[in-house]
Amino acid sequence: MRALVATFVFLSAMLPATSHGGPSSTTAKAAKELAEHLIGKGGKEATELAVETLAKKIETLALKYGDDALIAVKKVGPKTFRLVDDAGANGVRTVKLLARYGDNAVWIVKKKNRMAIFVKYGDDAAEAMMEHGEIAEPLISSFQTPAATALKAISPQNGRRLAILAEDGSLAKIGKTDDLLGVVARHGDPAMDFIWRNKGALAVAGTLAAFLANPQPFIDGTVDVSKAVTENVGKADRK
Fold first, then answer.
1. pTM score
2. Is 93 exposed, middle or buried (0-12, 13-18, 19+ CB in 10 A)?
3. Residue 166: CA atoms inside 13 Å, Cβ hemisphere, count?
4. Which of 65, 111, 177, 192 is the most exposed place for a label (fewest CB within 10 A)?
5. R_g over Cα of the chain
6. How would you write the pLDDT of the chain (239 residues) with one tens digit per residue?
């Protein structure tokens, strides 16, 4: 008899839970409420069949990716399903990005090259691409994390200026690009304004070194950059 009871207890433990208050039922309820909200928001009649169909898709996504999936669908709508499917192995990252940034992130996740940049360089790259659009892609691809953090700190206008300096060879001529972008990341638009106006002066090695060592006096005008150039050129001539 004891053996029979023990066997029954063991088999009972192996059966799936049927409690109506468990996590699965909570997810199903949230999915149905979200489906009703989305259908109503779209101006369509919330028929029971339509709600159940959409709710099941939302629930399936949420059971796989967690609460971020509910947030993503709420922000982005039904196109979330296709975007996540297309992402393949990057489904988790796609869901998290959509949940955090909503429609702004769609521009990234729908293109494999942009998604690859996000996967490799993280949230800084994602924010830079959302803020600066297509100009951010080649900059981050070329200069990696330093470009992403610099772009996060500056306006779209200065983002375009940075792209121009990269394209026309000015950044390469100035040199120490990672360090220069680090200054932009720390000091933002004022630093980029200074670099844009004084790209020629910064190409003088001694001036660049002085700027990188202590950029704030250059940015706020305490140090006369033209005087610094003259001094450094004179030093080079005397060698």
1. 0.77
2. middle
3. 20
4. 111
5. 28
6. 454 444 433 434 444 444 445 557 899 999 999 998 888 876 555 577 688 999 999 999 999 999 999 999 999 999 999 999 999 999 999 999 999 999 999 999 999 999 999 999 999 999 999 999 999 999 999 999 999 999 999 999 999 999 999 999 999 999 999 999 999 999 999 999 999 999 999 998 889 999 999 999 999 989 888 776 556 544 544 44
Instruction: Record the tokens describing residue 212, joined without a space.
Output: 């990188």
